[in-house]
Amino acid sequence: MTGGGSGSGSGIDSSTAKRHAGTAWERVARGGYAVSGVLHLVLGATIVSIGLGAGGEADQQAALGQLGGTPFGAAVLWVAVAAFVALGAWQLADAVTGRDEAVDRVKSAGRGGLYLALAFTAGSLALAGSSGSGSGSGSGDESAQGFAAGLMAAPAGRVLVAVVGLGILAGGVYHVVKGARKKFREDLRAAPGGELGRGVELLGTIGYAAKGVALAVVGGLFVLAAMTADPAQAQGVDGAVETLLGAPGGPVVVIAVGIGFAAYGLYSFARARYARM
């Protein structure tokens, strides 16, 4: 009897420990959405600054670099690393063990990879800052150009670059549609009601649309790189913003996109609280 009771208690303790560990993991993972929100606020402010003619570099590495340059910047970056690793791992676990449809699981895997890449970038910046060796890797535009150049060196390289560009372009259209149809509400387990709920919906609609426009331009630039066999045409978000800036009414469009990125940042804070995990 005593032995059986002890075994039962041990099983309960183990189950409780696992539940607490899962809850802690979820909390840190939710923090990843909050950190993403901060990054999008920084990006939004930078993009608006570019639209107003003040300049700046509109990519996530630059935004992380700005955070790293603040007081206690290294600590902030390590918090970002932990949050992004937790969220990336959560998304990958959902892709492997989740019960969603195959398409949704592929999306989870893609998001997981992106968050882990952000964790790597934040960690690299934190280590570079602590050693005084600079920012390490190149800008988002340089990374896009290097990636395109690597693809073009492969057999049927231009076709591969075009496929990547069309994929990014499709992702941009998806973001716009997701915002317009408010499909992002499916990502929330229980959206807030009343004025707060309407505010979250408005932020999500504007934010997804702005991100969609930027992604669509990035995709178009990759397709242009494939058509011209010039990897230098491939650009990241910063290059997309510069492209929009040179179009008719460019400054107004860029400022609107910057406001949209900031709106997405605020929506991300709500997602940290209400996300379906």
From TrEMBL:
InterPro entries (alphabetical): DUF1206
DUF1206 domain ranges (all copies): 32-98, 107-181, 206-274
Keywords on record: Membrane, Transmembrane, Transmembrane helix
Pfam families given in the database record: DUF1206
Keyword Transmembrane helix applies: yes
Keyword Transmembrane helix included in the entry's annotation: yes
Transmembrane parts of this sequence: 33-52, 72-93, 114-136, 156-177, 208-229, 249-270
Name of the protein in its database record: Putative Membrane protein
Species per Swiss-Prot/TrEMBL record: Serinibacter arcticus
